[in-house]
Amino acid sequence: MPKVVIDGIETEVRNGATVMEAANGLGIYIPHFCYHKQLSIAANCRMCLVQVEKAPKPLPACATPVADGMKVMTRSDYARTAQDGVMEFLLINHPLDCPICDQGGECQLQDLAVGYGKSASRFTEEKRVVLNKNLGPLISTDMTRCIHCTRCVRYGQELAGVMELGMIGRGEHAEIISFVGKTVDSELSGNMIDLCPVGALTSKPFRYTARTWELSRRKSVSPHDSLGSNLVVQVKQNRVMRVLPLENDELNQCWLSDRDRFSYEGLNSEERLTKPMIKEDGHWREVDWQVALEHVARGLSETRFKYDPNEIGALASPHSTLEEMALLAKLVRAMGGDNVDHRLRQSDFSADGKRAGAPWLGMKLAELGQLDRVLLVGSFLRKDHPLLASRLRQMAKLKTKLNVLHCADDELLMPVANKLITRPGDLVAALAQVVKAVAEVKHKAAPGSAARPGRSPRASHRETAPRCSSATSPRNTLKARSCSVLPRTSPACSTASSDSWARRRTASAAISRAACPWKAA
Ligand code: SF4
Ligand code: FES
Fold it and tell me: Which residue in 313, 381, 438, 481 has its CB near the most CB atoms, within 10 A?
């Protein structure tokens, strides 16, 4: 492992590490804009210039690999002069609109200009102006502020899997544009806002609503991506103003999916029910909490005396907190019932009692990178788990072979080694064949019914629309699509449950299917 001396401190780093990584390891800050630890190296801002002994000119720390015995000075006069010069160039065309810029207070350029810039500009010519772009409802642009670090472009290409932004022109004519006037529609687009070191890309919903120093911060967990991504909820006067990712390498790294980032808008929606209401004579009436709670208590008491305890049950929204669910279970049990469930979209309960604990991935997300093969079954991965899709995209670009078994030919925006698109009704048989093949390769007996798969799967790479096994109408196509979103369940439209409580849950699943987002899609 090479040894390097940075600002007089010696350290040992892994082979191939850059000066920037070595300095970070020592806690030495080197100013930078285009460098980001999760993105490829572009080395186009030149803000990270440092002095390297015996080198004829300053070198970019983010793109210079460490060599054994190297001596680096990050704060020498020579390095400072280079950094000051780059900052002066960057500020030539950057507008001095900090007082009205949404990035004010959390702008990397603003901070570094204070630390590394001169007190006055020598530039007296007119600054250039770049027209703003319409990137859709989430990202607002002020492209004159752009310093062409290309972080947004690289994020789209490398992590989101789709190059929706690119740079055209050279020198003073360089600008970031979307692909032929299109909007940025990636499910991870909000991360470009975080990455932009200046105020060129800002959050449209948050724009001009608060200053960063006015916001109090609360750590929380994402409610929508099923990963428990860490996030920070930022609040002003008891109103959630924005949500940002909280870095956690084990889970979401430093990213957040758009639905977790922007769904706070629903909290402030006028359509949200914030006051209790009671329906009387077919009309909803707003009441105060005391009246509403008495109404509920009366209803529950009547139910308790009118019905057999076995007929009493409660379905909780899976979005409820554990505390809310525990209280609901307590309430139902106090009424004598024991039927409490949260699986609103599940219709096949045949595995109940056969499994121990909650089903889970079987390994930590951070360990996924060790896999050389992945089999994805029945998941609209980019919609269901956008950040997991991003991780798999990185893996698929390296050594991991991604195999897909699904009822719809979903565009994953990553290399797929093998793909089997089958009818929803054939999915279980196809999976059984996979299990049987694995057992054969491993010289083991296939478990139970996998050894005798029923219908053979109909592989078709041409078949892009999922079809329902029980009917061919467009409505059932939607049904099939919605039930195939559920992992480890049979299609709801072809599965019947026997006992009465399970029948109710099936009815609930049907209701939930009616409200399924796929139906609106
Ligand atoms: S828009 Fe922001 S992130 Fe993109 S290149 Fe310009 S400064 Fe960098
Ligand atoms: S951070 Fe090194 S060149 Fe931009």
Answer: 481
Whether the CB of 48 sits within 6 Å of ligand 2: yes
Four-point Cα dihedral 460, 463, 464, 465, nearest 10: -130
**Ordered DSSP codes for 209-251:** T--GGG-EEEEEE-SSSSS--EEEEEEETTEEEEEEE--BTTT
Assigned token pair, 285: 């009436």
Which residues have a Cβ under 8 Å from the Cβ of 178 and sit 6 or more positions away?
Answer: 133, 135, 164, 165, 166, 184
Residue with CA at minimum distance from ligand 1 atom 8: 149
CA angle 237, 241, 136 (to 5 degrees): 155
Distance CA 303, CA 286 (A): 24
pLDDT in tens, 107-117: 999 999 998 88
Cβ(156)–Cβ(162) under 8 Å? Answer: yes
Closest C-alpha to ligand 1, atom 7: 146
Which residue among 35, 102, 146, 155 has the greatest number of ligand 1 atoms within 8 angstroms of its CB, and so is best to mutate? 146
The rounded distance, in Å, linking the Cα atoms of 366 and 358 is: 20
Closest ligand relative to 153 C-alpha: 1
Residue from 19, 37, 45 whose mutation best tests the ligand 2 pocket (most atoms within 8 A of CB): 45
41 CA distance to ligand 2 centroid (A)?
8
**By mean pLDDT, which of 144-148, 170-174, 201-205 is the weakest?**
170-174
H or E element: which one contains 155?
helix 151-155
Measured torsion, CA atoms of residues 333, 338, 343, 348, in degrees rounded to the nearest 10 = 180
In the reported structure, the alpha carbon of residue 249 is separated from the centroid of ligand 2 by a whole-number distance in angstroms of 23
If you measure from the C-alpha of residue 369 to the centroid of ligand 2, how many angstroms do you get, rounded to a whole number?
27
DSSP state of 128: P
User: Which of these, 144, 146, 147, 150, lies nearest to 163 by C-alpha position?
Assistant: 150
Name residue 182's amino acid: K
Decide whether any atom of ligand 1 lies within 6 Å of the 198 Cβ. Answer: yes
Q: Per-residue pLDDT tens for 345-398?
A: 888 888 888 878 777 888 999 999 999 999 999 999 999 999 999 999 999 999
Q: Is the pLDDT of residue 496 over 50?
A: no
506's tokens = 């099936």
